[in-house]
Design a protein that fits this description.
about 35% helix; 5 helices; alpha/beta; 6-stranded mixed beta sheet
Length: about 130
Amino acid sequence: MIVAGFGFRATATAVSLREAYAQAGGGAALLATAEDKAATPAFTALAAELGLPVRGISPEALTRQATLTNSAASRTARSTGSVAEASALAAAGPGARLLAPRSLSPDRMASCALATLSSLTPGTPPEEGQDP
């Protein structure tokens, strides 16, 4: 399962979120963000448009995730290097990995990162003894 994690400014629109999601590659089965932003109109509009469920992530769960990106602004505001990456990892569960660093919307109002529990990189054959 692929999870799309989002970080976004209070003034981000559903268009900003959609563009960040498209930049990241889409294809998620679940959307996640910080729990205090999960019910914002722009985020719920994107979830409704995509027909996907939403999971709000607690501040404690966000801070426990090791992110690829280390944004000073995110670290100051949320104690994590990337809310998008931390949300995706936390929602995907223990052992999850990011498919790539976060992607930004063209207006830089939203970011999105994709995470999965799969231990394989797409297109890579499993190692001997490893299930696909």
